[in-house]
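[STRUCTURE TOKENS]
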Amino acid sequence: MVFDLNLIKKTYSEIPAKVDAARKALGRPLTLAEKILYAHLWKGVEPKDFERGKAYVDFAPDRVAMQDATAQMALLQFDTTGRKKVAVPSTVHCDHLIVAKNESKVDLAKAVTDNEEVYNFLSSISNKYGIGFWKPGAGIIHQVVLENYAFPGGMMIGTDSHTVNAGGLGMIAIGVGGADACDVMAGLSWELLMPKLIGVKLTGKLNGWTAPKDVILKVAGILTVKGGTNAIVEYFGEGATSMSCTGK
């Protein structure tokens, strides 16, 4: 099910002109990540060759996703902004407060009882401000987002480090803090260091017992965790085309 077809159509209708303007400003071809970044510059920000990792740039994400643990503070902050509705499509997913211990029905029932006050708050404030609410048991945030909201060429921020899962569908999706999510929902720009780009060419294809996770572990071993900070790792080559969306 596609929830935001009009949003996707609008984004796609604007991308060609924005990418062309960025190509002219930079005087060179762009990678996929750069096309998405420049297509989501905040209104009034002119495209130029921003210094990666040093220049702060204002962006306009397409949507916000929040999980039940981190959404609480983000929405408490948003409640003080005075807005009557969120400025961009936003959703809350109640999955992180469910403890997997026995089996699904038992664990879900316990979570609903233990976190009743939290769920009631998230449900009511979501209804008040036009935020999509996925109740406990409706699914894991990252899979729900991938199946319902992610789309190639889009930009999303989420209050969880695993927001990048939507990148498997060719979307720039980044985990942020509640204050950043609040800013975007309130209609402000999202300020970010222009990401550095790390290109990884994959040749051949996975075989035997290997999995996409082995690729990540190898890359992390080379870069170290610090080596990927403030950077987008962009994979290309025939090896990338042989992986599934969820594998990516």
